[in-house]
Amino acid sequence: MTSRERALGWLAGLGLTAGLVMAFGVAPREATQGNVQRIMYLHVPAILVAYLAFGVVLVASVIYLWGRAAGADRLAHASAEVGVVFTGINIATGAIWGKPTWGTWWTWDARLTSVSIMFVIYLGYLLLRAMIEDRERAARFAAVLGIVAALDIPLVHFSVYWWRTLHQPPTLLRPGSPPMDPTFVLALMVNLVAFVLLYGYFTAKRVRLLRQEEEVFA
Amino acid sequence: MTYARRTWIVLWKDLLSERRSKETLNALFFFALLLLFLFQFALGADRERLTAALPGLLWLGFILSGLVGLGRAFLAERENDCWEGLLLVPGDKSAIYLGKVAGNLILMLLVEAILLVLFAVFFDIDLGAHPIRLIVVIGLGTLGFAAVGTLFAAMTAHVRAREVLFPVLLLPVQVPVLLGAVKATEAVLLGEPLGAVGHWLGLLAAADTIYLTVGVLTFDAILEA
What we know:
- The complex is a heterodimer of chains A (218) and B (225).
- By secondary structure, chain A is mainly α.
- Chain A is built from 6 helices and no strands.
- Chain A has one domain: Four Helix Bundle (Hemerythrin (Met), subunit A) (Up-down Bundle), CATH 1.20.120.
- Chain B has one domain.
- In chain B, helix 1 crosses helix 6 and helix 3 runs parallel beside helix 7.
- At the A-B interface, helix 4 and helix 5 of A face helix 7, helix 8, helix 9 and helix 10 of B.
């Protein structure tokens, strides 16, 4: 483990601890939903980081097709894996949150549907990588799929959105100041930063592992 | 040899071999017929239920037969070792992609035309009230499907488990096209003008443009040995 990786790991651990303290200690109990609402501090950062991860997959895929740098391919691979994990966390926590507040684990609401489609698309991406033995060919095909998948996300979003929705509209990513108590926002931000650090740590570790795998099997 | 000419040659080759063998088209015709039976068994004879589900069923039929047809798009090249032949084509390889897309589009449209007639006959549904509107919607939807399908078919042609991998990759990516096409078809069958589904048509057109552009730009990377 490189020292930079270790530092990132400690930072992520520290951030997560701070995030837990913020979520359970500092942030007040939400008035209508009660303690259940605290799952937001896991639910929202997870999906934002997943979007970041898939954005990285897109950029790395383009760079790979451009110059065929093996490093870009490894980054795309690692980032996609971490993104799928975070999307999974988001879907699972969403179901747990949905049961007490909406009365159901799952509903075919617009954002639930679009996130789960994204999840399946990137699972397919990982499947494609796993099924092609030739490393260089897997990298090329995965890069093409990484580009198609990322450009498909807005299409999926709009198409599914026009069905109408049960989900509350996005609170953070919209113009104007968020209509939340500043303490909630602060707690969310701390967790978001912690998740970004965690993403960086996981991805760096996975990239190194992929490189070592290649060295071993080369 | 110009770009357009190379595209045309690929298209012509595919159409000619299909016309002589009729391999894919014959199989797809029976497949479409069988789908019709399945839909009938699944939904029963209730006319109203059938009418409500018709746009979805129609596109389910298009998609399923499209999956079968598109999955075979590069089989001739693979089995007869013609892949190298494709690689030897001079100039920009995206001409091959466009030729293949055009061939697949024509094949799919043919099967869809057959399916439409079968639906009209067996379910006694009037599909001919607004033919132009229906053709616009089906054309836009099928183009998007053929554009990504051709790209993914070329990708999975070399994979051992391609029969599984191809639909698993293609179907989730096609969700926007499927949703838009079904919703627009539904509106057209109800007699609404195209303006009422402008947002869906815009989405389909955007999807077609994005898929075709990505396909043209990346096909080179897929074709390499």
